[in-house]
Amino acid sequence: MILKSIIISYSTSSAPSTFSASSAFFLSYLWPMVMHYSISVGPFSRGFHIITEEVKEAVVQWPENGLMHVFLKHTSAGLCINENADYTVRDDFKLFFERLAPEDLPGILHDMEGPDDMPAHIKSTLTGVSVTIPIVKHQLDLGTWQGIYLCEFRNQARRREITISIIE
Fold first, then answer.
1. Beta strands in the chain (DSSP E)
2. Which candidate, 161, 116, 163, 166, places its Cα nearest to that of 139?
3. What are phi and psi of 3, to 5 degrees?
4. What is the pTM (predicted TM-score) of this model?
5. Domain ranges within the chain, ordered by starting residue
6. Please, what is the angle between helix 88-100 and helix 117-127, to 10°?
7. Domain 6-167, CATH among 2.30.30.60, 2.60.120.460, 3.30.70.100, 3.30.160.160
8. Closest CA to 46 of 146, 116, 130
9. What pLDDT, on a 0 to 100 scale, did the predictor assign at position 8?
10. pLDDT along the chain (168 residues), means of 10
């Protein structure tokens, strides 16, 4: 289930605070229009999950040209763009990240939420929590084999909140 909300705003602090509907059309050429959509995904099991379709479905209106910025509001999961055709890519990612930052790593101090918490923060730092994709001709300009991944690094994950910003 995807939960959606939409906020439309002008992305500048120097835009006039009041203006008529006719001037709004003119202003859209001076200041880019930004549309924000919120979705909630998961919970997913630990691993790498393609969420491209969920992200695309959340966007109500696609501009002809622009940028889509996807931001994950969590510190123990991540986002990335990678191959979406071969499932073994996800298994290989999981293997690599588990070896890179294993649970119960000697010397780890932050363990109040369990032995997977600090390794999840480390992995999230490596993948990052946002991706930006060009929009060309009203659609995402992803490569043939590219997809958006939610990288879940916790054993007992919860739903993940994502903000999608469309910049026209």
1. 6-10, 33-41, 47-50, 65-72, 77-83, 130-136, 139-140, 146-152, 160-167
2. 166
3. -95, 135
4. 0.82
5. 6-167
6. 120
7. 2.60.120.460
8. 116
9. 43
10. 42 46 55 91 97 98 97 98 95 96 91 93 98 98 97 96 97
Q: Which pair of tokens denotes residue 29?
A: 């050429």
Dig out the tokens for 154 from the structure: 């916790």
Q: Distances from the Cα of 104 to the Cαs of 93, 111, 115, 153, in angstroms? A: 20, 9, 6, 14
The residue whose two tokens read 């999961």 is 77
pLDDT at position 104: 84
Amino acid symbol at 43: P
